[in-house]
């Protein structure tokens, strides 16, 4: 859980029901580069469930939850994009002010640093995505506080 998966490992990657696979794609900060990636995914019938981009003046990292992570990884690499797959936590939260803060307070109280976080709505659900390097401790927080994990199957 919460490890980098090589292209050889991705097909055999067994992920915990508390994590889902996220693509992280190196993105040059040039006109049209993002759309090239999106076009490759679209041409191969890969649906984007959630997407966020973190950028600097020279480059960015596109983070995406997609309908078929294995296929997306293979296709993007064949098109010469630099791609990694990470297991991240996906939690359902109330669609109400303060619900994200309450969840993150639980991780803070357990001294778990969050590397990054983003959220989106899926149907009537609000979903919190987060990555940490303290995966075992994060699982404990999730279980002890009866937080609802979302699996990849729930997002299809």
Report on the structure:
The protein has 156 residues and is an alpha+beta fold. The chain has two domains: 72 residues, VC0802-like (2-Layer Sandwich), CATH 3.30.2130.10; 68 residues, VC0802-like (2-Layer Sandwich). Helices cover 29% and strands 33% of the residues. The protein has a six-stranded antiparallel β-sheet with strand order 2-3-1-4-6-5, sandwiched between helices. Strand 5 and strand 6 form a beta hairpin. The protein is globular and about 45 Å long. The protein starts with 6 loop residues before the first helix and ends in a 12-residue tail after the last helix. About 6% of the residues have low confidence.
Q: Number of folding domains?
A: 2
Order of neighbouring strands in the sheet with most strands: 2-3-1-4-6-5
* Overall CATH class of the largest domain: Alpha Beta
Q: Could you give the distance between the termini?
A: 21 Å
Strand content: 25-35%
Mean pLDDT: 87
How do the helices and strands line up, and which of them pair or pack?
Elements (H helix, E strand, L loop, with lengths): L6 H4 L8 E10 L4 H11 L4 E8 L3 E8 L2 H10 L4 E11 L5 H11 L6 E7 L2 E7 L3 H10 L12
Antiparallel strand pairs: 1-3, 1-4, 2-3, 4-6, 5-6
Summed up:
This protein is of the alpha+beta class and about 160 residues long. Helix content is about 30%, strand content about 35%. The two termini are about 20 Å apart.
């Amino acid at each position: 859980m919460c490890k980098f998966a090589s292209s050889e490992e991705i097909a055999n990657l067994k992920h915990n029901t508390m994590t889902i696979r996220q693509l992280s794609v190196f993105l040059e900060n040039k006109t049209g580069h993002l759309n090239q990636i999106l076009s490759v995914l679209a041409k191969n019938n890969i649906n984007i469930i959630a997407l966020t981009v973190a950028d600097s003046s020279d480059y960015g990292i596109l983070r995406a939850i997609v309908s078929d992570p294995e296929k997306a990884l293979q296709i993007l690499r064949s098109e010469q994009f630099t791609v990694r797959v990470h297991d991240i936590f996906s939690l359902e939260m109330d669609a109400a002010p303060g619900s994200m803060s309450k969840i993150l307070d639980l991780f803070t109280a357990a001294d778990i640093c969050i590397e990054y976080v983003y959220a989106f709505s899926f149907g009537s659900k609000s979903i919190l995505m987060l990555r940490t390097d303290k995966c075992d401790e994060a699982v404990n927080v999730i279980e002890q506080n009866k937080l609802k994990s979302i699996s990849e199957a729930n997002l299809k």
